[in-house]
Amino acid sequence: MASEQRYPLVSPIGRIVEGDPWTPREKDGDGNIRVYKTGPNAGKPNPQYYIGLAIPKWVPHPQTGQMVDNPDFAAFYGQIDHIARTSWPNLFPNGGQCIAADFSWKIRDGDGFVKKGKNAGKPLADRPGFAGHWIVSFSSSFAPSIVVETSPGQYAEITDPKLLQRGYWARIGTSVSSNGSTNTPGLYVNLGSGGLRASRNASPYAHGLGRCANRVGRSPGWCSGIRWGSSGVSRAPTGSGIRWSPCAECGRPGPRVFCPGCDAIGW
User: Are 22 and 175 in contact (CB under 8 A)?
Assistant: First the structure.
């Protein structure tokens, strides 16, 4: 039987591209009512607070500016992988790869494809903000605590939904554990057990936000991110709306939604 010990982790910085930390989701990705699958509440509604956090696959090297694999994600994934192997040793024989093809890692390749459900086979990169990113799914039955940095190392809780919306940057405190299911083995990645740190600022990656979607053959017409240092995109005017601006890497225009009164760009 798999161990269900909880392991506390903190995510890398990423952009919220799915979900809403303020309102629980009553339906799953296929539009079905979410219910408890086992236990005394089996069949009863089970709304979940959910966030899909897009973490750039590539970030600029601090010295050279060249795009390299995101070291923060590599470290985070290494911890997830260790927890999976510790929780489900029978699924990683001889320390090798996982033998369960449907193991629930709660991490999707933003350049991959939907694996199941009514949208199976469709490219994930067609979804805004997915291309060039790893998408980590966080969920919880309880509303997360949400804080914003007011000064270096100092945080204050926020309760106004306007201060954290889809497209904003965040770092999520989580706990990871086995889901305890032998039918669909995998992990729970809980939302906000250590707090959700929000940011309305522009990309924390000074020179880039992942690789241009057009250059890797995905989603023509828009890009997975913006190079703030050279794209010519400036502070957004107060109010939200769709604007078109060129990608600094490929030069092609694409739609981007400006978050109200800040530098963040979402979709």
Answer: no
**pLDDT at residue 186 in the model:** 95
| Cα–Cα distance measured from residue 47 to residue 24, given in angstroms and rounded to the nearest whole number | 6
pLDDT tens digit sequence for 188-244: 999 875 556 665 544 554 333 333 333 322 222 223 333 222 222 222 223 323 333
Beta bridge partners of 48: 25
Number of C-beta neighbours around residue 260 at 10 A: 15
CA-CA-CA-CA torsion for 215, 217, 218, 219, nearest 10 degrees? 80
For the record, the structure tokens of 233 come out as 């995109």
* Count of CB atoms situated within 10 Å of the CB of 6: 14
* Token pair of 176 as six digits: 């990871």
Instruction: Give every CB contact of residue 200 below 8 A, 6+ residues apart in sequence.
Output: 148, 163, 164, 168, 169, 259, 262, 263, 264
Question: If one looks up domain 7-218 in CATH, what number appears?
Answer: 2.40.50.140
Q: Which tens digit of pLDDT belongs to each residue from 38-55?
A: 678 888 888 899 999 999
What span, in angstroms and rounded, lies between the C-alpha atoms of 70 and 210? 9
Provide CB contacts within 8 A for 183, sequence distance 6+. none
Domain ranges of the chain: 7-218
Identify the burial level of 107 via C-beta atoms within 10 angstroms of its C-beta, where 0-12 means exposed, 13-18 middle and 19 or more buried. Answer: middle
